[in-house]
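Hey team,

Filing this mostly as a record. A colleague (T.K.) asked me to run one chain through the structure pipeline before their review meeting, and I want the input and output archived in the tracker in case anyone asks later how it was produced. No errors, nothing strange. Just documentation.

Input sequence:
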Amino acid sequence: MHSPAIKTLKRALTQVFTAQPDGRKPASNDSGAVESVTPPQFLFHGTTPEASEAIAVHGILPMRRRFVYLYPDFELALECASRITKSPVVWRISATAAHNAGVAFYDGPGDDFLARVVHPKYLERLG
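Output structure:
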């Protein structure tokens, strides 16, 4: 039986790729596009105090990743940020407002959501 991470990865790859009829390597569906989803009213992002200074000015950026990871509740964002810093900072994202303004959100691993970038006007620093 596969772990939850393997199941999530297989599901994600199935959404993006289809096998060729002749068995060759998979081809991308729709140029690799994955459909966006409607997020809950609020999402949360945990980070370091140093990164928070940049987030206040530039928003949440993926940095060395393709997407930013956003969480459905404060506690999960706090837990994730606590893995990388002793002084975590959590931001609340007005996800509905951002989505209505054109920010695309995607299903991430588990209950997480993904986005390419979140503009600072949709952010509130919670601590």
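Quick notes for T.K.: Helices lie at 4-16, 49-58, 74-82, 95-100. Confidence is low (pLDDT under 50) at residues 5-33.
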